[in-house]
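Question: what's this shape?

___
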Amino acid sequence: METSGTGGLTVEQRKATLDQRIHAEEAQGWRVDSRTDTRATLARGKPLNNKLHLILTLCTVGIWGIVWFGLWITGGEKHRTLTIDEYGSIVDSLV
């Protein structure tokens, strides 16, 4: 088992702690996009179909752009990154 030189957690302990947090986030509707032993990128929602919205905006002479803007602000896909340090603290940041 490899530990940090300052008495921190082992990589295995950090990974297990991150696993627990990921399971809790998955219960809230997040899914894992990518994962390493000490970092995970989570996503929620679905990406907007910008090509379709552009065509609708052009066909409605810009009126659909109001709806598209509203969807862009409130909807779409959200991303977060969870990073665990050598002491077991998890930093949650929006991407």
Summary: Residues 67 and 73 are 10 Å apart (CA to CA). The chain has one domain: 11-94. The radius of gyration is 19 Å. The longest helix spans residues 11-27.
